[in-house]
Write a structure and sequence with these properties.
Helix content is 20%, strand content 23%. It is built from 2 helices and 6 strands; from the N terminus they run αββαββββ. The chain has helices at 2-16, 49-53; strands spanning 27-31, 34-37, 63-65, 77-80, 86-89, 95-97. The strands form 2 sheets. A 4-stranded mixed β-sheet has the order 3-4-5-6, with no helix packed on it. A two-stranded antiparallel ribbon has the order 1-2. The longest helix is centred in the N-terminal third of the chain and has 15 residues, at 2-16. The N and C termini lie far apart (43 Å). The model is unreliable at 2-15 and 56-61 (pLDDT under 50).
């Protein structure tokens, strides 16, 4: 019984620490080091997606734009807000900020 309880607790803890968990709907793909979530936002995880999954989406140069044209999440282009925050736009038009 103790082993079963321990496995349930550890799996719940693991699920809470995965990128794009909860309402974000899981991981869609990598954008260099960032995790792109199924809801279109970027994960705040400090883990490296390309290191975790490797493959074709290695770290790419990131361009920073002053206006919001062309900074959709998943394009490796980010906008800089008026207070210095770096973000991309989700498909629904919301800003998804990169973790510092």
């Amino acid at each position: 019984m103790f082993v079963l309880l321990l496995s349930v607790i550890s799996s719940a803890t693991w699920a809470g620490n995965t990128p794009c968990s909860g309402k974000k709907g899981g991981i869609d793909r990598c954008d260099g080091e960032l995790f792109l979530c199924n809801d279109g936002s970027i994960s705040a995880s400090k883990k490296s997606c390309s290191a975790m999954y490797g493959g074709q989406n290695q770290a790419r140069p990131q361009s920073f734009l002053q206006n919001s044209d062309g900074c959709a999440c998943g394009t490796s282009s980010f906008c800089t807000g008026p207070r210095g925050g770096v973000y991309c736009l989700t498909p629904s038009g919301n800003k998804s900020y990169k973790r510092k």
